[in-house]
Amino acid sequence: MNTKKRQAIKERLEEAERVCDENGAQLTELRRSVLSLILEADGPLTAYQLLDQLKEIRKTAVPPTVYRALDFLIENRLVHKVEQLNAFIPCNDTHHDHHDVQFLICDKCGTVAEIEDHAIAHALAEAAKKQGFRPSKAVVELDGICAACSASNP
Amino acid sequence: MNTKKRQAIKERLEEAERVCDENGAQLTELRRSVLSLILEADGPLTAYQLLDQLKEIRKTAVPPTVYRALDFLIENRLVHKVEQLNAFIPCNDTHHDHHDVQFLICDKCGTVAEIEDHAIAHALAEAAKKQGFRPSKAVVELDGICAACSASNP
DNA sequence: GAGTGAGATGTTATAGCATAACTCTTAAAA
DNA sequence: TTTTAAGAGTTATGCTATAACATCTCACTC
């Protein structure tokens, strides 16, 4: 990992600390470790991939260890679950409303891009309203080929 | 099950037969049985719920039996998978483009409504285009409270 | 300082979801 | 007739997630 990325991760961990403080939640060493692993990863990680890595620094780790940490991180808007992959990625912007986030999943390279498109969010809200449906959560995930992979494989 | 529903299911099985014929696919007895169970159900069914029911009429059924049938039915646009529930529901309209379907999942009563909202589909397509992303599939699922449950629990 | 309560983590076991890999049968194509 | 391909059977296993109960820690209070 290069210096720049290491610095970016450090900043995001500090931001996470602030967010948790504001929420009256504790970013414990365990939770911080799990978040750090997710931030360091190049792409989405499954719970068991996280577990394998976590075991190296915390030998008592078992599945509930990881799932509890993930639940906490998701509740505090530090991590997203990608439903189609059963995998987890960092949240890019702790300020946005998690209702209004969408994911672009590249089938070629596996990267998941997080976007926040208000036209989509608005269309979803309108459609729900039309049906008398009161949404509490939205899962919006597009599968396909990302720009980079389209360019290299035309 | 009342007569009306039985008739509706019969019609949908006949329609499924036509669709498969057009696709050069075979709606075998097994696949027809699985589709029928999904059509008869009041709500989404998991693969193992289907398996339990299927065993009553086909004692050799095991998980791959069900998953293969489901794969076939999804490919032929007769069934949808609801990602958040790991469960399966019938497709309401075999003509529409599966890219352009959305689900409204009621957290209270468990029903899943399938809608086809072109404003959402359009917004998704635009957002993808903006990113140079070429989508092949869209998963759009809203969790919340349906109109009926809102009315009864104000 | 002993007791209490809440939150975090440890621990064991199991439930729930999905597929790999190989076999057998059957029916149509060559 | 041999070959091939699709469907289904069979066995085993891998992956994903949670239940339930025990223990620890630390702040608070009596």
pLDDT below 50 for ≥5 consecutive residues: which ranges of chain A? Answer: none
| Integer-rounded radius of gyration of chain A | 17 Å
Based on secondary structure, the structural category of chain A is: alpha+beta
Shape of chain A: globular
Task: Explain how this protein is built.
Two copies of one chain form a homodimer. With 154 residues, chain A is an alpha+beta fold. Helix content of chain A is 50%, strand content 20%. Chain A contains six helices and six strands; from the N terminus they run ααβααββββαβα. Chain A has helices spanning 3-23, 29-40, 47-57, 63-75, 118-131, 147-152; strands at 45-46, 79-82, 87-90, 102-106, 112-115, 134-145. In chain A, strands 1-3-2 form a three-stranded antiparallel β-sheet. A three-stranded mixed β-sheet of chain A has the order 5-4-6. The model of chain A has no long low-confidence stretch (mean pLDDT 95). At the A-B interface, β4, α5 and β6 of A face β4, α5 and β6 of B. Chain A binds a DNA duplex (30 and 30 nucleotides) through residues 26, 28, 30-31, 46-48, 60, 62-65, 67-68, 86.
Can you lay out the helices and strands and say which pair or pack?
Two copies of one chain form a homodimer.
Chain A: H1 3-23, H2 29-40, E1 45-46, H3 47-57, H4 63-75, E2 79-82, E3 87-90, E4 102-106, E5 112-115, H5 118-131, E6 134-145, H6 147-152
Parallel strand pairs in A: 4-6
Antiparallel strand pairs in A: 1-3, 2-3, 4-5
Helix pairs in contact in A: 1-2, 2-4, 3-4
The first copy, chain A, binds a DNA duplex (30 and 30 nucleotides) through residues 26, 28, 30-31, 46-48, 60, 62-65, 67-68, 86.
